[in-house]
Design a protein that fits this description.
- The structure holds two protein chains of two kinds.
- Chain A is built from three helices and nine strands, in the order E-E-E-H-E-E-E-E-E-H-E-H.
- By secondary structure, chain A is an alpha+beta fold.
- Chain A has one domain: Beta Barrel (OB fold (Dihydrolipoamide Acetyltransferase, E2P)).
- In chain A, the strands form two sheets. Chain A has a six-stranded antiparallel β-sheet. A three-stranded antiparallel β-sheet of chain A has the order 4-6-7.
- Chain B is α+β, with helices and mostly antiparallel strands.
- Chain B has a domain of about 80 residues: Elongation Factor Tu (Ef-tu), domain 3, CATH 2.40.30.110.
- In chain B, the strands form four sheets. A six-stranded mixed β-sheet of chain B has the order 10-11-12-9-3-13, with helices on both faces. Chain B has a six-stranded antiparallel barrel with strand order 14-17-16-15-18-19.
- The chains are: A alpha+beta, B alpha+beta.
- The interface between A and B is medium-sized, with 10 and 18 residues.
Chain lengths: ~130, ~375
Amino acid sequence: MNFPSELKYTKDHEWIKALEGNQALVGITEFAQSELGDIVFVDINSVGDSLKADEVFGTVEAVKTVSDLFIPVNGKVLEVNPELENQPELVNTDPYEKGWMVKIELENPADLEGLLDSAAYQNLVS
Amino acid sequence: MKNTPFLDKHLALGAKMAEFAGYNMPISYTGINDEHFAVRNSVGVFDVSHMGEFILKGPDALDLIQRVTSNDASKLVAGQAQYSCLPNNNAGIVDDLIVYCLKPNETYLLVVNASNIEKDWNWIAGFNDKGVQMENISDQTCLVAIQGPNACKVMEPLTPADLQKLKYYTFEKNSFAGVENVLISATGYTGAGGIEIYFENKDGNAEKIWDAIFEAGKAANIKACGLGARDTLRLEMGYCLYGNDIDDQTSPLEAGLGWITKLKKEADFPSKAALVAQKATGITKKLVGFEMLERGIPRHHYKIVDSEGNEIGHVTSGTQSPSLGKAIGLGYVNVPHAGLDKEIFISIRDKGIKAKVVKTPFE
C-alpha cells in the first residue's frame, strides 16, 4: 500500500496535506478505503464549522458499513470536494488525490507536527 | 473460531475475512460491487459451509417436522425442498430454514442458519418424543452456492444431472466434479438463479470441487463472492435475513412470511393458535421494503419516523443497491404507514431522510 511521505496521518486513518496560506486538504488513507470497501456516499455537512482535533466532520458510507470522519487538527471546514457528490468511488480509486474530502483552514499550522509521518502510520497499519 | 474447508482457497484469493456466527468467513475478495455484478450478470461462487445441516430419519420424521415448522412438509415429494420457519412459543421465530425431502415420511434434511445451529437443535430435540433419529452433520458438510444466470450452463459439464431442467426448489443426488453423492439443489439466496451443492468434506473433496467449479466457469468470468455480496443480492430480492429482519420477537405474519405459515395444516405447531388469532385481528406492524428519496443509506436499527418526527418503526436491513444504484432497505413500520408509496423518513444521524414504501423484489 501507498502512504505518500509528504502527508501526515492520524490513528483514525485520515491524511492531511498542507497547502499554501494555512490551508490543508483532508482525506482517508488507502488502508481506510480498502477496509471500508466500495464507498457509495460521502456525507459532509460541516462547511463553515470550526472544529477541534478529532471531532467528526462527516461520515463515509460504504456498501457494507458506515464510518465517521475525524478532523486531524483544529481548523475550520472551508469546502467539500464537489466531485464526490457524483463520484464517491474516487475515494477508493484515488484516495490521496482526486478522492480528497475537505479543505480546511488550520488554526495553527504547527499542529501538523504532532501527527504521524508516513513511516509511523505504515507501522500502525501493517 | 471455526474454519470451513475452503480457508486456504479464500486466503489465496486475497479474501477479506471476518468472524460470522463463529466462523472465519470471506466477506469480499475483489469488492462487493464487483462480486455482486458477477452474480447478476454471469456467475459467482459462495462458500456457505458455515450453514447448519440436520438429518431427521425414521417413521415419525415427518410428524416431528410438521410439529415444529410452519409450512406444510407433508406436501413434499422426494427431491423437493421447501422454505419454512420454526415458530417459537411467543409467536416469534426461532429460525428460518429449508426442508429437503430425501425420502417422504422417512428422511429429511433441514438446513438452518449458522448462528442458530445449537438453538435449533435443542428446540427441535425438545419436541422429539417419538424417537426420530436426529443427526447434526453441520461440521462435515460443505455447502457451495453457484449463482447467476450462467451458473447452470457452465456447471453442466461437471455432472450428469440436467441442471438447466432442474426446477426451482427441487434437487437430486448425483456426482459432481467426480465426487459421488453430491446433493445438487436449484435454490439460492440471490434471486439470480443457479444451484447450491452439499457434499461431505472427506478425501480432498472440497478442493477438488472448488477447483473444478472455477475451471468450468473460467470462460464465463466466474468469481468468488463473499458474504458482503450475498447480503446486497438477497436484500435486492427482499429476502429476510435471520437476526436482522426476523428474530425471536417478530411474527412470521408481520415479516410477510404468511405464505410459509400454513395455519390450516393439521398438525399443531408452536404459537399456531396465537398466529391464527393474529391473522384474525390483524397485525399492527409490518415488514416493508422502502427506497430512499433523499441521499442517505439506511442501516439496521435506524429509527423510522413520520413527517412530524414521531417514531413509527425501525430499519432491519439497508444498503446501497449495486444493481439499482439507489439506497434500499427493509424495516418494520406501523400498519397505517405500510402501504405502497407511503412517505416515511429514516432517521440518519438525527435527521429525517425521506423514503417511500415500495414492493419487493426492489426494482
